[in-house]
Amino acid sequence: MAGNDWINSYLEAILDVGPGLDDAKSSLLLRERGRFSPTRYFVEEVVGFDETDLHRSWVRAQATRSPQERNTRLENLCWRIWNLARQKKQLENEESQRMAKRRMERERGRREATADMSEDLSEGEKGDTVGYMSAHGDSIRGRLPRNSSVDVMETLTSQQKGKKLYLVLISIHGLIRGENMELGRDSDTGGSVKYVVELARALGSMPGVYRVDLLTRQVSAPDIDWSYGEPTEMLTPRDANGFTDQGGESSGAYIVRIPFGPKDKYIPKEQLWPYIPEFVDGALNHILQMSKVLGEQIGGGEPLWPVAIHGHYADAGDSAALLSGALNIPMLFTGHSLGRDKLEQLQKQGRMSRDEMNNTYKIMRRIEAEELSLDSSEIVITSTRQEIEQQWRLYEGFDPIIERKLRARIKRNVSCHGRFMPRMVIIPPGMEFHHIVPHDGDMDGEADGNEDHPASPDPPIWAEIMRFFSNPRKPMILALARPDPKKNITTLVKAFGECRPLRELANLTLIMGNRDGIDDMSATNASVLLAVLKLIDKYDLYGQVAYPKHHKQADVPEIYRLAAKTKGVFINPAFIEPFGLTLIEAAAHGLPMVATKNGGPVDIHRVLDNGLLVDPHDQQSIADALLKLVADKQMWAKCRQNGLKNIHLFSWPEHCKTYLSRIAGCRPRHPQWQRSEEEINQLESDSPSDSWRDIKDISLNLKFSLDGEKNEVGENLDNDVGPEKKSVDDNNKLENALLRWSKGVQKDTRKSGFSDNVDHASGTGKFPVFRRRKHIYVIAVDHQTLDGIFETVQKMLDDVGKKYEGNAGFILSTSFSLSEVESYMLSKGLNLHDFDAYVCNSGSDLYYSSHNSEESPFEADLDYHSHIEYRWGGEGLKKTLHRWVGSITDKKDETEEQIVAEDDEHTTDFCLAFRIQNPEKVPPVKEVRKLMRMQALRCHVVYCQNGTKLNVIPVLASRSQALRYLRVRWGVDLSKMAVFVGESGDTDYEGLLGGLHKTIILKGVGSRAASILHAHRSYPLSHVMPIDSPNIVEVAEDFSSTDIHAALEKVGFLIS
């Protein structure tokens, strides 16, 4: 009960009594008397955002006139406090147990990882502090040399000369536009929105960067501005005289808005999770189109792929991971604020159960997105060292000790045994300083103007603020933050109100976002604002505190300027501040700072040395620091000068220079095919049939015809060398050209790396027939046996395939191996060519049908394997899983029964398969995944076939990602796909539900062990299933062909 010392002793007495209070008959009788409702009372009066509400309720209860009602209220309030305290103690105990278990798991993972990496440890791997720091970058002072932005840009221009880079940034929640950003409108439109927009703008002006796309959500809702519905918005450079000298038709920085989610509705980030696959598909289409356009403009006809995809915040990180995997392009990630850190804060408050946190904030879905981002990222960009040391180390996928060992081994070119860890890089956010002129005047003198250059009139926002003050000439203490409890504004007001010397010397200005009416604000924000207003009234701060209702983004620099003009101070009292961009903005305008000692301000203060750090929980410390800076003019001037002297270290050119150098250090990756799209299109257009056999027949016919002509000509060759000779030469040229072309196709097919046991004369696998299908049906139902799957398959083939034969293509997507599928289909007399493609082993293998049955009816797409092999652990992963299998046993009496066994028969290069004897005894997916992540092994773990099998596949592979690969590789339109799934399925089932494709859910079909497979999920399926999506439709149990047709018509899919 921090902050409630008035009741601590009472609580201790109650808690000491313990179970004796359970006998509460007298209490119950009191509650039942009269018309007083304790339940309603506690809901309306006691439960609030802050525990200080309890004290106010206590005071009100004591003031009740009726003794009977007063006693009842006080007794019930005591019970509420007791329950709250007991709940907090219980949560603390549970949390301590979780942390102890986590430490043990982490240590075991480190030991096993170190044992596998059996080479002698170098000095860099032994855990010294210096090595630890260098693993995450040097100090900011050391990394950022003190040179001007002009020098930086001139040097970078020479280094980047001739480069044409394409970058993609992603930030999908909030309201994003280039000008007049509505920062503070809601919790989703905050500082991170401004950061990512300015980053895109700055990168677009850098030498060597041709185009930057910032992808976000397109929102066309009646309650927001029309500009958020514009598909594209160009970000104009801040400096018209900048260094951009490479303009082109599509060059520059752009906001690109992708439509996804509910139409005509702006929704908070917690509700966006089910629609992320739809965003990914839309973004994939944009990137493919833009890469082609840029390739035609500056790439010599070859696509210009992005050099990196950068996700901002957890939802964009999840999206970037899927896009990075689909395109095989390096990924960067910036968390901004992290889910595990928020979870810890919520648990400490003790006001919500874990389920309530999950339902309100979708916190576990957010954490899993951040873990997936760690799995997929080359680089994780942080603003401060605190973010690495105190926040990222909470995650399963990042361990600073293992990261240091891996980094040392990489430098020595020693094998890491399949282990990977993203590189943590500290790059402070940047700012534009060229337009900022620090104010040297004060409220008593006008130093800004003279006779030749008269001073400009005061900005309107100045009058809007100063109208609150009885003495506007006093120094201004400025706080700029939305009314959120974690911003700690109420403590600031208390510190100001209770320090009389500070009130006499200074005014307080609170810029708390924009609002029309308190009733229109969210409950949390409204409660903070009301608390501030009550404190103003309590301490009688009228005429000393300003809290304007509205301001524009363009007004913010003028607000800083006003505070500097009054010789004021900027304060950020947040409990934890991930970075603190406003501190840099304030310093650039000549304002000293007082800031929280928790988080990014520590690093900022280390560089700028322009103020004081305080404990945000210590009200007196805040008041003392503010008073010291306001009262001591020499200290104020020194802090101001230090800030202005060092501020260039946080410029955007500095930021972008470091940013681009880090990207340059990544291993280049992009889609690479062993046969170009141009060759394929040319061969397909020349081919009179899908089958190479037809081409071969034409070749032979022509050859025979030409041979006949040659023989006839040869008989008269000695007698006549006239016009016939020219004809023979032409015919020979035609024949030779055709035969060379024929051999070239066969040679390219062999070169492509497809399996040697397939017919290289068959072009069907190389040019899949589904490329010309009008619609594609993907059968992705899950079952323990192939009998159960093919019952559905046969219905689809009979109902849809026969009616639209030739126009409709079929793809089978399954957890079974190709050998199992082939054996089954042959045993049942089924046609292997009913399917154009087979996605097998949970998405780790992709095959195409081949119409040459002499050797093999399938061709493997090895381009797909090269696409998904990134970060595949291989033998290192296999060794760890072998050890894990041996630890999963069922003890019966004195014997141990092995629950999991390796399935060597169905294990492939990119799928490690295991048989499961008892699905109820194996750990859930999240536990196996955690074990792998803690040892820096990146993979997908899939329980399938009713829990009787486990497939471990590359982190970039999945059944849903295989469909996106078909879009990238063969240009298949995802919106022309219909994916049939059951009512339940394997543990990768959720990935098949969302996206641009149509999803047909077959009720009554699917895994019978769904309750086992999905019982221990980190988050419920409802958090990721877009139930209201127009692309999803359900078909009733025992469906008929009529039901299928009706469902396809409902999603607008039937072929006309």
UniProtKB/TrEMBL annotation:
Q: Where is this region: Disordered?
A: 92-145
Residues forming the Sucrose phosphatase-like domain are 776-986
Q: How is the subunit organization of this protein annotated in UniProt?
A: Homodimer or homotetramer.
Name the Gene Ontology biological process terms.
sucrose biosynthetic process
Q: What is this protein called?
A: Sucrose-phosphate synthase
Q: Which NCBIfam families match?
A: sucrsPsyn_pln
| Superkingdom classification of source | Eukaryota
Glycosyltransferase as a keyword of this entry, yes or no, is yes
Q: Name one GO molecular function term.
A: sucrose-phosphate synthase activity
Q: Which reaction does it catalyse?
A: beta-D-fructose 6-phosphate + UDP-alpha-D-glucose = sucrose 6(F)-phosphate + UDP + H(+)
The job of this chain, per UniProt, is described as:
Plays a role in photosynthetic sucrose synthesis by catalyzing the rate-limiting step of sucrose biosynthesis from UDP-glucose and fructose- 6-phosphate. Involved in the regulation of carbon partitioning in the leaves of plants. May regulate the synthesis of sucrose and therefore play a major role as a limiting factor in the export of photoassimilates out of the leaf. Plays a role for sucrose availability that is essential for plant growth and fiber elongation.
